[in-house]
Amino acid sequence: MEVRRNIDTLGRSYATGRRKEAVARVWIKPGSGKFNVKKSGSGNSNIQKEDNLILYFKRESLCQKVKTPFIQTSTLNRYDVTATVKGGGLSGQADALAYGISKALSNISPDLHSVLRSNGFLTRDSRVVERKKYGQHKARKKCQYSKR
């Protein structure tokens, strides 16, 4: 059985990452480590350099979370990343982007698949917000019980 690889005619590998309500569409290609992150639906959130990734995510911890798949596979500054993100908050978007990058790295060089799998980067975090139930204040918080 042959693994399906999403690589287009320009040599870019495509993958989609999801986390909570956030969705990241990721294209990576061999390059010098540039990040181009756009918020879907707006043309002004265009970050061109790796150093300016902090302009989009605002916190260094989120930038490190996005770069972690590259750091674990020793491929930092070897691939250019183009991504569009939508939905959710910044933390969910960072997780979705990291998951999409991991899947795209696995597509473009299958020998990295085992490293990414063993470090847990190819496992989807399926936790989502629990829905609110009727007759309750929140998802789990009940109304105050009155015995008499």
From TrEMBL:
Domain of life: Bacteria
InterPro entries noted in UniProt: Ribosomal_Su5_D2-typ_SF, Ribosomal_uS9, Ribosomal_uS9_bac/plastid, Ribosomal_uS9_CS, Ribsml_uS5_D2-typ_fold_subgr
Pfam families: Ribosomal_S9
GO molecular function: RNA binding; structural constituent of ribosome
One GO term of the biological process aspect: translation
One CC-aspect GO term: cytosolic small ribosomal subunit
This protein's UniProt keywords: Ribonucleoprotein, Ribosomal protein
Recorded family membership: Belongs to the universal ribosomal protein uS9 family.
Name by which UniProt lists this protein: Small ribosomal subunit protein uS9
Native source organism of the sequence: Wolbachia pipientis
Gene that this sequence comes from: rpsI
